[in-house]
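Step 1: inspect the first sequence and its C-alpha cells.
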Amino acid sequence: MTPWIEEVGVQYDDGSTAGDSQVLVLPPDPATTVVWRMTAAGDSDVLVTGPRTKASYQAKKKLPALVRLRIQPGRVRSLLGVGGDELVDRVVPLTELWGSAATSLAAELTEHRDDPDRAVDLLARQLAAKAPDRQGRSGRSELVLAAIEELSAGARVAQAAGRAGVSERYLRRVFIEAVGLSPKHFARINRVRSVLGRAGSWSRIATEAGYFDQSHLVAEFRSIMRVTPAAFAAGRVPVTTC
C-alpha cells in the first residue's frame, strides 16, 4: 500500500444484508476518495469523490463489489493530477482525468470482483504509478502537509501559519488549492468527525472535542451534518434516493 492511501474500505455483497441499516451515511470529509464499483448489471467504473463539505444520507444500493481508497488530504494532485479545489463536493468519473487508462483499469478490476485484496492492490498500484515524482515534494506541499498535521492536532489556523512562517492569507490560498477546503473549514470538519459515534454527555464530549461549550457543538454539528447530534444518534436523518 502506498503512503498516500490513508484508509481502505471494501464492501462485497454476499446477499446477507438482513438487519443492516438501509441508510448510507456519508459524513463530511476533507479527503478525496477513489471508488471502484460494480453494479448488479455487471457494469464497472472508477469514480473520484472530492472533499465533502456537508454530510449526505442516501438509500443503500446493492453492489456486488465496492472498493474505496481514501487519499490523504494534500496528496491529491500527486496522484490524480488535479488539486482538491477542482474536486470539492463533486463526483467525477476517473475517465475525465485519465481517459482510456481509467476504462482499462475498470475492466481489469472486474477480474478481481471476488478477491477484494487483489482489487485494492491493483487500484493502489495504478494510482501510485501515476504520481509524477513519488519521492519529491514541493515547498507548498510541505507547507500544506505540515498545516494539516497541526490542524488535525487541534492547532488554530493562526498558530499553524505562524509556525510555518507564513501569513494566514497565504496559508489559506495554498491550502484551498491542495485540499479543496480552507484551513478553518478543514478543522471544523475534523472536529465534527471526531464526535461521530461517541456516547455520553454532550457537554463532556464538547469539551473533549475542543468546542467552547455544548451549544457550540450543536450549532456546528447541525451546520455540517444537517441534523442535530441527538437526531443523528437516533437515526433521524434526511435520506435521498439518488
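Step 2: inspect the second sequence and its C-alpha cells, then contrast the two.
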Amino acid sequence: MKRVLLYVTLVVGAVVTVFPYLLVLLTAFKSSGQLHTTQPWLPGVPPTTANLTKLLGGEFPHYILNTLVMTIALTTGQLVFTTFAAYAFARLRFPGRDVLFWLFVATMMVPVAVTVIPLFLIMRELELVNTWAGLLIPYVLGTPYGIFLMRQFFRSLPAGLEEAARIDGAGQLTILLRVMLPLCKPALGTLAIITVISSWNSFLWPLIITSDEQTKVITVALAALKVGIGVDYAQIMAGGLIALVPMIAIFVFFQRYIVRSVVLTGLK
C-alpha cells in the first residue's frame, strides 16, 4: 500500500509539472478560432504552424540570436571569473577571507528587485543604458551562488596535490590551471549548465536596461506580444515554445549536472 501511494503521488506530481508545458505545445499549434472552440487540453484539428511561421518570419530569429550571444558571454565570464574568485576563497590565505566570503554569499538573500534600481542608476551615469555592456557587466563577473559552488568543490580536493606541485616548482597560477582545473570539470560543467539556463530565462534586467531592437532578448520579446487589445494567445504560446525547446533539451541531456550542483553545495 505504501508503494502504491508513493507511485500515485509521483504520477500526480509529474502530471501537474508537465501539464503547463503540454498546454504550451498544444496551444502553439492552434489557430485563433480553434483556441476559443476547443478545450485547452485538447489539440487543434487540424494543427497549424501559422503561429510559428509568423514569428520565425519576423524579428524573432534576431531576438533568439541576441539571447544566444548574451548567454554565451555570461556563461564564459562566469566560468572564468568565478573560478578565480572561488579558488582564492578556498585555497589562498589572506586577512578577512572567511568574513568577506560569507558577506558576499549573504547577498543571495537580497531580492533582485532591490538591486535593480541602483544598478540602473549606475549604468545611466556610465552611459551604458541600452548597450550590450550595460546588459552584461552586472552579471558577467560572477555570482555568489557560482562562487559558493566552485569553492565547495575546491575545498573537497586533497591539499597534497598543491603541495606536490609546489615542490616541483609550480606557481599559484600554474597550480590552478594545470592541477586544479582539470579536476574541476564536473563542477565547471554544472556551473555552465546552471548559468546557461538562468541567462536564457533572464527577464527583469534586460527589460529595464534595454529598449532597442538591437539588444532585445527573447523573454522581453515574449512580454511585448501581450501588449495591446486583443492578445493572440496562440502566438504567445508559439513564442514560448520556441524559447522552451533549448531549455528542455539542455535539461534532458544534462540533468545530472543540475542534480550534482545540489550535492556539491550541500556536502563538504
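Step 3: confirm your contrast with the notes below.
The mean pLDDT is 87. The first helix runs from residue 2 to 28.
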